[in-house]
Amino acid sequence: MQKLLIVGCGDVARRTLPRLLGHYRVFALLRDPTQFAFWRSRGARPLLADLDRAASLRRIGGLADIVLHFAPPPERGAVDTRTRRLLAALTRGKSLPQRLVYISTSGVYGDCAGAYIDETRPLRPTSARATRRVDAERQLRRFGLRNGVCVSILRAPGIYAAERLPIERLQKGASALNVEDDVFTNHIHADDLAMLTCAALRFGRANRCYNASDDSVLKMGDYFDLVAERFGLPRAPRISRSEAQQKMSPLQLSFMSESRRLDNRRIKKELRAKLRYPLVADGVNAAWQERKL
What we know:
The chain has 293 residues and is of the alpha/beta class. 37% of the residues lie in helices and 19% in strands. It has a single domain, classed as Rossmann fold (3-Layer(aba) Sandwich), CATH 3.40.50. The strands form five sheets. It has a seven-stranded parallel β-sheet with strand order 3-2-1-4-5-7-12, sandwiched between helices. The protein has a two-stranded parallel sheet with strand order 6-15. It has a two-stranded parallel ribbon with strand order 8-11. Strand 2 (25-30), helix 2 and strand 3 (45-48) form a beta-alpha-beta unit. The longest helix has 20 residues, at 128-147.
């Protein structure tokens, strides 16, 4: 049975784990020992290590046949030092992984003025977060080409689930942009992203990127309205972009400064993906049903 290492053990990793058990011997890289019991009880073998401390990563060299890299970059700088340390540790082993799947972000494309875009779109990140993701992608692709490792990259947009809806924001009176100022936004349910991770594990091509997005075509305000209507909340008041610049934090504004529509045909053709929640409305309705139960 092949050994698989999960790096970055957050929500999507937890949703992916049940799909892996029985097919792989799963190791989970954790920097918090209090999480050991959770992962061990669910069938994974915990490893204590921290991507911010190179010395702690010595044990993972040569350990895994497959790596699922879910870890985010650090919060500052233009370089993803965590990915750099991970790859350095992997190359120190007697053997390299055969395959690596990385979850990146669709933010690497930057603002596309609402255009439909596929994976051939040039990368023009406009935020520091996305710049670090571009650096991670480039590191991983070079690593794959240099060492013959099959690296597949999933570019995920806004990840949502029942626990990840903007309900609290709406309750606190969050605003949305006027229709003429609003931006197109893209989404993927966390369960579908877990499914796509496993699909990339099986069918992903070497040095290949995939838009891991659903079929929805929504502007951000319409997304807020959809959630508000389904959960019986007041709609977000619409404001102009100039008003938003005065009221919103730089982080909130950054999400309202990029507009694009992702072409997801590649995940359907190459990864053979069948989304459980092809539209955001499907996922929001499912979350409402869960709440009723």
